[in-house]
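// run 5 | inverse folding | seed 20
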């Protein structure tokens, strides 16, 4: 036994007044109940097919709720009084609207008796109500269960890690920034202080005291450490921003997995590696996702929130909320190489390097061309230096190993040479260009 098909003609929105205007006893219907003032479809109203006075066929929750209320009113719809035929005292045959044809008989197996129909309507209404209730309570429970991230541990105090630490601390989170040596961490903290000074110049241009307070508060929220394992015991979120190397990242996550509490969410800021592979190195695949910030973090508004097939909805929503809390605009993407931005951007930068390698144009002219011709704020070589040539090389090498025949992912001898010479871009003072 399957569901009886609802007649198509009855799928019309109905107002509460529609049913009121239906003459329940006689089966006479108002023009509105016919489907609008004009009875536009010229079809027979559903009154003849459902409970007396209740349009029977629309299965939408509001119509079903309406029907249910009518069920309560009309205890036994099969016993509705029929009009007496004039002079005979005998019940008149059920009337149909003037001009309306009698309903075409349905196949016998689909025809339901009135009590059965009323039962069906009631069951549908009940099921729909239960479904709506369950759905809304699921959403409420998910929202209630979302993790409010307050304490953040950031591993890697380089370009990205320091930037993420800055925006997280500035937005009131308590942050521990971790790197391999105190020397690196001193450099990171100095960089953050300088960046904060730039921020207050804009944000608190005419309120220097408020600006100084902002810096003080932000730095108060920030501490540093060289021992990740010892600081993750009370953290809500670990964001990894270390070297773009899967083995190194996996090793770090494996270690932290042993020391971090159960509720802690792990996230990687990787530009190009598979989040799923990192999640699989831990025992918390459902509490693992990608949080891909952009450089420079304090300026760039975007965060790509990456959901693997194992990332729970709660984790995903907590990461989205965290991104918003640090003042960013999150977009979501599946765990696909390069996510959204880099999948488009990296092949473009590599094509610029190939153009230069072939001697078709100078790097300076390529940069000028893309800035003035395409309206990009930076040329591809300036951007490569900014991102870091080692990071760019890791990305392209990784993709090349996945798809060796894809010409967009072909490695560049020039990029490899610069990385070998430790000319990594702005961060080392030299890349494609020299920086003081
Ligand atoms: N540079 C960008 O524009 C950019 C943008 C988005 C995402 N990312 C990603 O962010 C990550 C970091 O990139 P970055 O540019 O900040 O690199 P970076 O080289 O500037 O910084 C990496 C830092 O991690 C530290 N580190 C390395 N291994 C460590 C470990 N085991 N424990 C603690 N610290 C460790 C290093 O000492 C270094 O300070 C990479 O995964 C990269 O793909 C980079």
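// decoded
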């Amino acid at each position: 036994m399957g569901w009886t098909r609802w007649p198509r003609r009855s799928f019309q929105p109905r107002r509460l007044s529609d049913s009121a205007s239906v003459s329940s006893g006689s089966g006479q219907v108002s023009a509105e109940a016919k489907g609008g003032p004009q009875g536009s479809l010229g079809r027979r109203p559903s009154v003849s097919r459902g409970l007396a006075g209740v349009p029977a066929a629309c299965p939408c929750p509001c119509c079903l709720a309406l029907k249910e209320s009518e069920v309560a009113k009309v205890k036994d719809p099969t016993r509705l009084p029929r009009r007496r035929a004039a002079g005979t005292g005998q019940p008149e045959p059920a009337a149909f609207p003037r001009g309306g044809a009698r309903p075409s008989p349905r196949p016998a197996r689909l025809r339901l008796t009135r009590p059965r129909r009323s039962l069906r309507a009631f069951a549908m209404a009940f099921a729909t109500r239960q479904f709506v209730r369950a759905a809304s309570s699921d959403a409420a429970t998910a929202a209630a269960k979302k993790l409010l991230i307050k304490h953040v541990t950031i591993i890697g105090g380089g370009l990205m890690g320091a930037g993420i630490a800055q925006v997280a601390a500035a937005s009131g989170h308590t942050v521990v920034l971790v790197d391999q040596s105190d020397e690196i961490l001193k450099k990171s903290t100095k960089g953050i202080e300088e960046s904060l000074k730039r921020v207050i110049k804009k944000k608190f241009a005419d309120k220097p005291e408020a600006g100084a307070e902002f810096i003080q508060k932000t730095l108060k929220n920030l501490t540093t450490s060289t021992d990740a394992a010892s600081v993750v015991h009370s953290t809500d979120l670990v964001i990894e921003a270390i070297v773009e190397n899967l083995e190194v990242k996996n090793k770090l996550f494996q270690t932290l997995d042993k020391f971090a509490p159960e509720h802690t969410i792990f996230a990687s800021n990787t530009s190009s590696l598979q989040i799923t592979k990192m999640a699989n190195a831990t025992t918390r695949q459902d509490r693992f996702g990608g949080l891909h910030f952009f450089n420079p973090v304090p300026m760039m508004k975007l965060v790509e929130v990456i959901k693997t097939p194992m990332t729970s909805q709660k984790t995903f929503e907590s990461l989205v909320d965290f991104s918003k809390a640090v003042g960013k605009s999150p977009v979501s993407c599946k765990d696909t190489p390069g996510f959204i931005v880099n999948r488009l951007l990296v092949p473009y930068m590599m094509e610029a390097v190939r153009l230069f390698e072939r001697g078709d144009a100078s790097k300076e002219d390529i940069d000028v061309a893309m800035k003035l011709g395409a309206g990009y704020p930076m040329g591809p070589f300036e951007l490569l230096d900014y991102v870091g040539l080692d990071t760019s090389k890791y990305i392209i090498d990784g993709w090349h190993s996945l798809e060796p025949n894809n010409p967009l992912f072909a490695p560049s001898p020039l990029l490899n040479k610069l990385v070998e010479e430790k000319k990594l871009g702005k961060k080392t003072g030299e890349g494609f260009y020299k920086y003081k």
